[in-house]
């Protein structure tokens, strides 16, 4: 598949055109950002791991009937995906209270929620991706009622499946963010973007060690090692088997180049 011109560059990915108007190439960068792009760094190898992990999870979800934009992984950093018009909403599914939920509502960190909580955020960096309500979505016609209910149902199915998958490898799925888009061909709503340690909070089941982007947000170090641990437990790094949970030591061996 021949790579064409750059169509879009975001915080963690670049989208390139292809010779097929209905497909694009999604390139995973090593860039890391946090706090609405206020904190930035380049973490060597992060994009490769996110590409591999997201491919594995999206393929697994497609096997249970969750339609998504992944067609195939092309190489270590790139995927061929279906071109979609991204719906300007981030869907955040929470199983355990942490992050902004604890700050906004004063909920104790680590509180297990009685049932999954779905929150909506408007995708707008200039506004800081503000949290919005169901009524906002319907009133401003970002989605209609049928579409919103369909996506909510999909979110709960994805959560149920991923919780079981991660529980089986000793990881708690604390929360995660997903995005959806409408296909160019027939306006079908499908899962898009990525599912990786950049978009999920993943804690070791026994120690609550963080295996996700919070290691960058909170300056915990060992970022790539944590992502590698997730990939190993998923069975997609075959050079080593029977990996035990890694011990996060200080100082970290990962070199982070600060962006200018």
Short synopsis of the structure:
This protein is an alpha+beta fold and 260 residues long.
| Mean pLDDT across residues | 91
* Main sheet attributes: strand count, strand direction, barrel closure: 7 strands, antiparallel
- What is the name of the CATH architecture of the domain at 86-221? 2-Layer Sandwich
Distance separating the two termini? 34 Å
Helix content: 25-40%
Report the uncertain regions: 239-246, 248-260
Measured by DSSP, the beta-strand proportion falls in 25-35%
Classify the secondary structure makeup into a structural class: alpha+beta
Characterize the overall form: globular
Question: What is the count of helical runs?
Answer: 6
CATH class of the domain at 86-221: Alpha Beta
Provide the CATH topology of the domain at 86-221.
D-amino Acid Aminotransferase, Chain A, domain 1
For the CA atoms, what is the radius of gyration?
A: 18 Å
At the fourth level of CATH, the homologous superfamily of the domain at 86-221 is ATP-grasp fold, B domain
| Strands, total number | 15
Order of helices and strands, N to C? EEEEEHEEEEHEEHHEEEHHE
């Amino acid at each position: 598949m021949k790579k064409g011109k750059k169509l879009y560059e975001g915080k963690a990915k670049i989208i390139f055109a292809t010779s097929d108007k209905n497909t694009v190439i999604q390139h995973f960068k090593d860039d890391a950002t946090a706090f609405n792009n206020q904190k930035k760094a380049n973490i060597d190898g992060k994009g490769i791991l996110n590409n591999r992990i997201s491919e594995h999870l999206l393929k697994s979800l497609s096997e249970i009937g969750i339609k998504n934009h992944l067609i195939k992984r092309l190489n270590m950093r790139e995927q061929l995906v279906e071109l979609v018009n991204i719906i300007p909403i981030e869907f955040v599914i929470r199983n355990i209270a942490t992050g902004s939920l604890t700050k906004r509502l004063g909920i104790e960190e680590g509180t297990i929620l009685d049932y999954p909580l779905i929150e909506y955020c408007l995708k707008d960096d200039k506004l800081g991706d503000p949290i919005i309500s169901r009524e906002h979505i319907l009133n401003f016609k970002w989605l209609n009622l049928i579409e919103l209910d369909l996506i909510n149902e999909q979110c709960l199915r994805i959560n149920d499946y991923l919780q079981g998958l991660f529980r089986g490898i000793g990881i708690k799925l604390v929360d995660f963010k997903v995005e959806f888009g409408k296909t160019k061909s027939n306006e079908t709503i499908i899962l898009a973007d990525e599912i990786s340690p950049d978009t999920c909070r993943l804690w070791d089941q026994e120690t609550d060690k963080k295996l996700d982007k919070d290691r960058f947000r909170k300056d915990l170090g060992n970022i790539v090692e944590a992502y590698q641990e997730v990939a190993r437990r998923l069975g997609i790094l075959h050079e080593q088997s029977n990996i035990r949970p890694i011990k996060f030591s200080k100082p970290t061996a990962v070199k982070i180049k600060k962006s200018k």
